[in-house]
What does this fold into?
Amino acid sequence: MSAETKYVVKIYPSPKPKRVPKAVSEELKGVASAKQISRMKKESVDCPIVKGEVAFPVCFACPSFIRRVKGMVDCAGGQGPPREWLL
It folds into this structure.
């Protein structure tokens, strides 16, 4: 299944790290190292689906996430992250 990029979203450093739900953190443990997860928690994106600022780990775990390349995220745009992930 090939997902088409609908949005290209810029990643930026967050002045104050946003809280990441435990479910997202647990999901990322098998995918990324603790050091990478720690670095991701200090980044944010302006999500076009949620229409607001979202912590990067939430974006990374979202079903619409395609890839991250050079400070940009390719997003399929379909369904967004589950409601309980958005704080």
